[in-house]
Write a structure and sequence with these properties.
Blueprint (H helix, E strand, L loop, with lengths): L7 H17 L11 E3 L3 E4 L4 E3 L7 E8 L2 E5 L2 E2 L6 E3 L9 E3 L8 E9 L2 E20 L3 E4 L4 E10 L3 E8 L4 E5 L3 E4 L8 E8 L6 E19 L1 E2 L6 E10 L3 E6 L2 E3 L6 E6 L2 E6 L8 E9 L2 E10 L17 H14 L3
């Protein structure tokens, strides 16, 4: 069989299809015809089903549904290969189809073509597909040093065009909308700006889509709590201080220029998160005096002076002295910190 032989059957099929189409939908049937009319638009949400209705009567001899240039149904015979398009069994005066799980490419004009006493009529329905707002791209969690500049991005899609807003949730539980834009720009960021940033997008088609970016602001230690303590000889005494820092601070304890070590000279040093405790299991007269709590991380160093005193001593019972340590001690600590940061 020559090459031409392979095209005989398809060619005959095309001829049949053309003849049937000409018979069913004569020239002039599109909406330009004076016998055609336009129904209201049908709006559905992506993923839902759409029902396209067409009214007929007992004088109708031929009916068909078309989508642009594609025939979906002729009478009860299905021409579309799309399994989502089905013919509804409705009243004799109605010729309707249903499109399941509607998607964007289903949007557009649909024509119900009717042949009555050899007079063509058609009804045009325009299907509009709405898409719920959805975030498609957003910044990843970010960790920056205090004083840096950062930009957060959030991109969303949807039909109608969705709105985008950013909400800031601080670690203290404060919530506030900071911008109605795709981008959040922060200059000279401070530790108070550390927290969760929620991108919220909505177009009223479905519940808002929300994604979160966590912003961590690294900053040097700040000693927030430290208190002098009075303890009698022979009793257990505890000195403690608390420092906020990101990353968490490392703590060291000194008496004068002498560093204290855990388990030596009857003291225990216990560090838990933001707090450090210096415990004396059996306080002696020699233990009384001024102690220095030093908090440090890669970004800086700070210290607080705390007093362990005995009964009847004159002291400031409310606050520890938040003052610098000796020049020798600070110099030693800074050199140690600089050395460690190289590794």
């Amino acid at each position: 069989m020559g090459i031409t032989g392979y095209f005989v059957l398809p060619w005959k099929c095309l001829v049949v299809v053309a003849l049937r189409l000409l018979f069913l939908v004569p020239a002039g049937v599109p909406v330009r015809s004076g016998d055609s009319y336009l129904k209201d638009n049908i709006t559905v949400r992506q993923g839902d089903s759409a029902v396209l209705k067409c009214s007929v009567d007992n004088k109708v001899s031929r009916v068909a549904w078309l989508n642009r240039t594609t025939i979906l149904f002729t009478g009860n015979e299905k021409w579309s290969l799309d399994p989502r398009v089905v013919l509804l069994s409705t009243a004799v005066t109605e010729y309707s189809i249903k499109i399941l799980n509607v998607n964007l490419y289903d949007e557009g004009p649909y024509v119900c073509s009717i042949l009555t006493n050899k007079k063509p009529e058609s009804t045009k329905v325009h299907l509009i597909v709405q898409v719920p707002a959805r975030i498609v791209n957003i910044s990843t969690d970010v960790s920056v040093n205090e004083g840096s500049n950062i930009t957060l991005m959030c991109l969303a899609i949807g039909r109608p065009e969705p709105t985008i807003s950013w909400k800031f949730r601080s670690s203290k539980g404060n919530h506030k909308i900071i911008t109605d834009s795709e981008y959040v720009q922060m200059f000279g960021i401070t530790k108070e700006m550390s927290g969760s940033y929620d991108c919220i997008t909505s177009n009223d088609i479905s519940p808002p889509d929300v994604r979160t970016v966590q912003v961590t602001v690294n900053h040097p230690p700040v000693i927030s709590r430290a208190r002098s303590t009075g303890t009698a000889v022979g009793q257990k005494g505890v000195l403690w201080c608390e420092a906020s820092a990101v990353p968490l601070a490392n703590f060291e304890w000194f008496k004068g220029d002498r560093r204290l070590f855990n388990g030596r000279n009857g003291v225990m040093i216990e560090n838990k998160g933001k707090q450090s405790m210096l415990t004396f299991f059996n306080v002696s007269e020699e233990d009384y005096g001024n102690y220095t709590c030093v908090a440090m991380n890669m970004l800086g160093i700070t210290n607080a002076s705390i007093i362990l005193y005995g009964p009847g001593a004159i002291h400031d019972v409310n606050n520890a002295a938040l003052s610098p340590t000796s020049s020798f001690l600070l110099l030693t600590l800074f050199l140690t910190l600089s050395f460690l940061s190289k590794f």
